[in-house]
């Protein structure tokens, strides 16, 4: 009788759990805290059956909105208990569903678990990664790798300041312990990628490629000098690289793509750190390039990751010969990808690599690649397409943008005007960036050059004028470069006469011009002579000393502002008195400005 009662209770719990899982799947906010908490307590009880535990963890993985911190703590305790019993017979079915719960657990609770050394969190994770079940190993590697990235972001952003410690020293020790565990998780990925079963190795390579793709390792290494005796420390680099590569070649084609991308990034880093002075590393690079060919058996979906992996290695300055060797193959494959109707989701990524190849291709390949690239850029205007071109902060992103602008400035194509407008729309955010670095100033100059050429067409299209009036001109005062601001004002005067409608347009531009003139006069060099090319300003070379990082006062900008003033007076004579007052203020500051101001005032009067 007791056994039947227990079986009946288990059946009822199983039915309730199935119903709540179904409800949480369709309606995340339909459950209440009380019913979820009571059900999870029954599912995670010591006497609960395996199906009940599985449904309990499935419900927790759906993360209903009613779950509170107390309920999350209950879920964490149950998951940790399952990790501790990973070696038990028959634990695999529950582990496959309990481990993914760490993806949705609050990071505060996860970091708290990693701090509790008495619970041996690393040993529990290792037990799952080394489990006899391949499914458990795959789930453990994928889940804990994602969790480690999120924990690392929190750890290095604010540390463990939310946790109470007896002293600052105790907090530092705890942070070091957690960091060590996070690093060991990625060591487990390396071990799995090197010698594990194909299914597990595929997951490990995918995790490593994702980690390297999100990190700044390659960018930071690019700015470092080559260490002269690095070969003494990297003698084992090629054998280990060869083991990774050999295991990657055993994977299915889809899994090889992640491995190929990660090995490309590793090869780049090895070259950068050693200067390719180690013969073993040089051999690794050559073999990677030779075996990563785009075979006829690869589909278009697989072709892009292969091209991307090869392009990663070819970006290194030491790979000039390989760039010449591979450019034609990559261009032909990327062109086929762009023209394929089934690859619309990857089209923006293909454009990035294609534009990056512009500087590497010969004249014939260049003409072949520009046309499809412009067609694809023009197609990005579709509002149903969710992704857009963006400009990140790396120097590589600037090189891509520079190559793209140069291609748009110096080529002719039926979709040329539309492609220029789309590129300007996607990169218009550079106008609002307040950085004053050389790279940002150069980006602004490229943007303004492309916008100027687009506006100077014989008949600017209404979308172009609308973009200039409603998007560019409102952002113009926020541009950090004075020369670019003046150029944007001039474009607004010449091509967008109805920016604000009626006379308000003239008064708005007049206010901008007045602000620029007064700012020019109050700057440190506003009262002195303009610099000449004989001064060590970097124009004639001679090092970085006394070279300005942003454009400063030049006579040309002052002349351009007065031209804007003259154009305003031609459009609206009522601004004459205000223009005379502005010139009077300018005249008293600088003798050179006085001559020019008198000349313009004579034309005004």
Q: What would you say this structure looks like, in words?
A:
The protein has helices at 2-26, 33-43, 50-61, 69-84, 92-98, 107-115, 121-129, 134-158, 168-195, 198-214, 217-222, 237-248, 253-274, 279-291, 300-314, 320-339, 347-356, 363-379, 395-409, 416-426, 438-455, 462-475, 482-495, 504-522, 555-571, 576-587, 591-604. It has 605 residues and is an all-alpha fold. It has a domain at 234-292. 67% of the residues lie in helices and 0% in strands. Mean pLDDT is 73; it is low at 1-6, 216-228, 278-298, 382-394, 499-503 and 524-553. It is globular, with a radius of gyration of 32 Å.
Task: Provide a short characterization of the protein structure.
This protein is mainly α and 605 residues long. 67% of the residues lie in helices and 0% in strands. The protein starts with a helix and ends with a helix.
Write the layout of secondary structure elements.
Layout: H1 2-26, H2 33-43, H3 50-61, H4 69-84, H5 92-98, H6 107-115, H7 121-129, H8 134-158, H9 168-195, H10 198-214, H11 217-222, H12 237-248, H13 253-274, H14 279-291, H15 300-314, H16 320-339, H17 347-356, H18 363-379, H19 395-409, H20 416-426, H21 438-455, H22 462-475, H23 482-495, H24 504-522, H25 555-571, H26 576-587, H27 591-604
Organism: Aphanomyces astaci
Protein name: DUF4042 domain-containing protein
């Amino acid at each position: 009788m007791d056994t039947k009662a227990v079986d009946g209770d288990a059946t009822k719990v199983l039915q309730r759990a199935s119903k709540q899982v179904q409800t949480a799947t369709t309606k995340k906010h339909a459950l209440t805290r009380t019913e979820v908490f009571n059900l999870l307590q029954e599912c995670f009880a010591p006497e609960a059956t395996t199906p009940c535990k599985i449904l309990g963890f499935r419900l927790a993985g759906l993360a209903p909105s009613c779950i509170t911190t107390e309920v999350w703590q209950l879920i964490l305790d149950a998951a940790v208990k399952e990790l501790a019993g990973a070696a038990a017979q028959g634990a695999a079915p529950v582990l496959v569903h309990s481990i993914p719960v760490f993806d949705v657990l609050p990071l505060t609770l996860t970091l708290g678990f990693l701090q509790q050394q008495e619970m041996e969190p690393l040993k529990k994770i290792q037990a799952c990664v080394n489990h006899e079940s391949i499914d458990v190993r795959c789930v453990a590697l994928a889940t804990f790798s994602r969790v480690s990235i999120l924990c690392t972001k929190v750890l290095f952003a604010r540390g463990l300041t939310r946790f109470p410690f007896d002293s600052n020293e105790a907090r530092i020790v705890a942070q070091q312990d957690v960091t060590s565990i996070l690093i060991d998780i990625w060591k487990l990925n390396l071990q799995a990628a090197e010698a594990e079963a194909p299914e597990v190795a595929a997951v490990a390579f995918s995790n490593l490629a994702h980690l390297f793709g999100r990190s700044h390792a390659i960018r930071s290494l690019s700015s470092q000098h080559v260490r002269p005796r690095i070969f003494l420390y990297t003698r084992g680099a090629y054998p280990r690289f060869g083991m990774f590569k050999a295991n990657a070649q055993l994977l299915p084609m889809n899994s090889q793509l992640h491995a190929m991308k990660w090995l490309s990034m590793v090869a780049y880093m090895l070259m950068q750190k050693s200067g390719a002075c180690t013969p073993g590393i040089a051999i690794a690079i050559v073999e990677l390039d030779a075996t990563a060919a785009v075979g006829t058996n690869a589909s278009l979906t697989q072709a892009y990751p292969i091209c991307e992996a090869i392009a990663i290695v070819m970006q290194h300055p030491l790979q000039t010969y390989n760039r010449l060797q591979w450019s034609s193959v990559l261009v032909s494959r990327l062109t086929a990808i762009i023209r394929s109707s089934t690859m619309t989701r990857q089209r923006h990524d293909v454009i990035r690599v294609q534009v990056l190849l512009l500087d590497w291709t010969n004249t014939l390949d260049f003409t072949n690649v520009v046309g499809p690239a412009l067609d694809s850029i023009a197609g990005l205007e579709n509002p149903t397409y969710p992704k857009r071109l963006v400009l990140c902060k790396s120097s590589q992103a600037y090189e891509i943008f520079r190559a793209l602008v140069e291609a748009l400035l110096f080529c002719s194509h039926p979709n040329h005007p539309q492609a220029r407008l789309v590129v300007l729309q996607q990169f218009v955010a550079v106008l609002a960036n307040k950085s004053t670095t050389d790279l940002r100033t150069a980006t602004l100059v490229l943007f303004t050059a492309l916008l100027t050429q687009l506006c100077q067409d014989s008949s600017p299209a209404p979308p172009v004028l609308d973009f200039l009036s409603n998007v560019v001109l409102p952002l113009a005062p926020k541009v950090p470069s004075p020369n670019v601001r003046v150029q944007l004002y001039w474009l607004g005067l010449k091509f967008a006469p109805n920016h604000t409608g009626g006379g308000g347009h003239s008064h708005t531009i007049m206010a901008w011009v007045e602000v620029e003139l007064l700012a020019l006069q109050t700057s440190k060099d506003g009262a002195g002579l303009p610099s000449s090319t004989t001064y060590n300003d970097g124009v004639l070379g001679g090092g970085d000393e006394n070279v300005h990082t942003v454009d400063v006062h030049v006579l040309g900008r002052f002349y351009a502002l007065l031209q804007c003033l003259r154009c305003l007076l031609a459009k609206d004579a009522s601004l004459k008195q205000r223009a005379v007052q502005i010139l009077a203020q300018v005249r008293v500051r600088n003798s050179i400005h006085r001559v020019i101001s008198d000349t313009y005032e004579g034309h005004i009067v």
